[in-house]
């Protein structure tokens, strides 16, 4: 028997209101202690509510992390999701420390002037309610603006640009919008587009021997045939927060495929890589590789490889399933691209880069 109704995507929306109610009640009881200073049970009740509220924030935070890993999030909602997670973390730390402090103060309150700590504690708690409000406001925006976790999400999955923006085709191949988002759907002119619209950071055309071939699933796709070669390409404008989707087939390839973002130069960039059933989020910096997070995931056939980078949040998905979620300091904005090295054939159908800024 499941305690979660079939219409609920996860347990998070079922418990999210408990910390809000408990902590607001705690502040109201705290206000009562300022008005009725001789009524001891008001202070005891307030402290109990703060402790319960702090525990509820911890439970709600971790159910929220689990929920973020399983729900489908439209590209433009990712910055809101990350802000919601950050504010939630601040709230957990604040009320965890504050609740413990109030409990200790309750035990030793007779050694302190009564009115001064009561006023200070109340004002500090009001500040904490501000953190709680920001957390709740961003959570509500995810649901009511972007439909995260509800059936309305299906209407937003294909949103690639903001209202009012239109894709403007460039001279050939890549199409762009004003905010820097771009798409490339490889076709008969794949070699020409790779040569003229991509920046070849390392390697050359002969290293990947590109060609357009027919695939039963997608029609004309790009095939890259490597003989222990390597190529490193970037394209598009300098971008900050991004979602990158690539339709990919690596069944006949042995080596490493790497999506690169925030590219600064060949010695400094961030990446998401696939190699031997392992996905990694990392940073190349001055010939040293720092791995932020890695995870195992077996795949075969065509996959939709996705990475979402916003602020200090780095996420990697395969076919809408979160594989890894890492954190790191944000690099300056930079273009997006890919780096491949190994032996065999890689098939690619589409690259879609969406600016989230």
Describe the structure.
The chain is an alpha+beta fold. It has 2 domains: 12-155; 168-355, Exo-inulinase, domain 1 (Jelly Rolls, Sandwich), CATH 2.60.120.560. Helices cover 35% and strands 37% of the residues. The chain has 7 helices and 14 strands. The protein has helices at residues 12-15, 17-35, 40-70, 78-107, 115-144, 190-197, 205-208; strands at residues 168-169, 175-176, 182-184, 199-202, 210-215, 219-239, 242-265, 268-275, 278-285, 288-296, 302-310, 313-318, 321-327, 334-355. Strands 1, 2, 3, 4, 5, 6, 7, 8, 9, 10, 11, 12, 13 and 14 form a 14-stranded antiparallel sheet that branches. Helix 3 (40-70) runs antiparallel to helix 4 (78-107) and helix 4 packs antiparallel against helix 5. It is elongated, with a radius of gyration of 25 Å.
Mean pLDDT: 84
Described by strand count, sense and barrel closure, the largest sheet is:
14 strands, antiparallel
Q: What is the second-level CATH architecture of the largest domain?
A: Sandwich
Number of helices: 7
Summarize the helix and strand pattern as letters.
HHHHHEEEHEHEEEEEEEEEE
Percent helix, as a range, is 25-40%
- The proportion of strand residues reads 35-45%
Uncertain spans:
152-171
Integer count of domains = 2
Distance between the termini: 43 Å
User: What class, by secondary structure content?
Assistant: alpha+beta
Going by CATH, the homologous superfamily of the largest domain would be Exo-inulinase, domain 1
Give me the CATH fold name of the largest domain.
Answer: Jelly Rolls
Kindly provide the name of the CATH class of the largest domain: Mainly Beta
* Broad shape: elongated
């Amino acid at each position: 028997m499941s305690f979660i109704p079939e219409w609920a995507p996860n347990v998070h929306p079922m418990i999210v209101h408990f910390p809000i109610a408990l902590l607001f009640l705690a502040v109201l009881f705290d206000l009562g202690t300022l008005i009725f200073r001789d009524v001891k049970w008001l202070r005891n009740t307030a402290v109990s509510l703060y402790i319960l509220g702090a525990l509820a924030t911890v439970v709600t935070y971790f159910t929220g992390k689990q929920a973020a890993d399983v729900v489908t999030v439209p590209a433009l909602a990712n910055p809101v999701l990350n802000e919601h997670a950050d504010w939630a973390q601040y709230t957990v730390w604040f009320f965890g420390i504050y609740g413990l402090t109030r409990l200790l103060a309750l035990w030793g309150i007779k050694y302190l002037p009564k009115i001064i700590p009561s006023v200070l504690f109340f004002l500090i708690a009001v500040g904490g309610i501000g953190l709680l409000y920001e957390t709740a406001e961003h959570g509500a925006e995810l649901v009511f603006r972007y439909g995260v976790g509800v059936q309305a999400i299906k209407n937003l999955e294909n949103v690639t640009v903001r209202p009012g923006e239109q894709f403007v085709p460039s001279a050939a191949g890549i199409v762009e919008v004003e905010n820097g988002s771009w798409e490339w759907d490889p076709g008969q002119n794949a070699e020409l587009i790779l040569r003229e619209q991509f920046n070849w950071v390392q390697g050359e055309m002969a290293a990947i021997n590109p060609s357009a071939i027919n695939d039963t699933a997608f029609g004309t796709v790009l095939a890259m045939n490597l003989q222990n070669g390597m190529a490193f390409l970037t394209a598009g404008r300098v971008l900050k927060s991004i979602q990158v989707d690539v339709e990919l087939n690596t069944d006949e390839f042995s080596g490493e495929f790497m999506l690169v973002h925030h590219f600064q130069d060949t010695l400094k960039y961030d990446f998401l890589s696939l190699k031997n059933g392992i996905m990694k989020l990392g940073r190349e910096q001055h010939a040293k590789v720092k791995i932020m997070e890695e995870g195992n995931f077996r795949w075969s056939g065509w996959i939709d490889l996705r990475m979402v980078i916003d602020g200090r949040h780095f996420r990697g998905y395969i076919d809408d399933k979160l594989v890894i979620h890492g954190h790191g300091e944000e690099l300056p904005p930079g273009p997006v691209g890919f780096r491949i090295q190994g032996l065999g054939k890689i098939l690619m159908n589409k690259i879609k880069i969406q600016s989230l800024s």
